Amino acid sequence: MVLALATVGGSLQAAFLPGNIWPNPSLESVSSQAGIPTFWHPGGSEVSIDDWASDFSVSPVHSLKLDDASAADYGEWWSDRVKVTGGATYSLRYSLRYDTTGTMRVTANFADETGVRMSGVDFNFSGTQLDWEELTQSVTVPDGAKAMWLTFASGGSIEVTGTAWLDDISFANDAGETDTESKARILDAAYSTEIKIDGEVSDWENLSSQSLTMDTQGRGTNGMLAVDIQYAWNSTNLYILVKENPSYTVAKAPQEAPDADTYQNAPWAVDTIAFWMDLDNNAGVVQDGMPVVENNADFQPWFGFSSAGRRDLIYGRVNDSGSMNLDGFTNAKVATGGTFAEHNRRIEIAIAWRDVAAAVDPSRQPGGDVSMAVTPGFVFGSEPLLIYNDYNAQAFLGPDQWNPPSGVDTNSVDVRLISGAKVVDAAFSSEINVDGETSDWSNLSSGVITMDTQGRGANGTLAVDIQYAWNKTNLYILVKENAATTVARVQQEAADQAAYQAGPWAVDSVAFWIDLDNDAGTLKDGVLVVENNADFQPWFGFSSSGRTDLIYGRLNNSGTMNLDGLVHAKVATGGTFQKHDRRIEIAISWADMPAAVDPAQQPGGDIAQAIVTGFTFGSEPLLVYKDFNAQAFIGPDQWNPPSGADSDSRDIRLVDAAVPVTPPSLTIDAAGDSVVVRWPVSATGFVLETTGKLESTASWSQFAGEILVENEMNKAIVVSSGSAAFYRLRK
Question: Class assignment of domain 185-417?
Answer without folding.
Answer: mainly beta
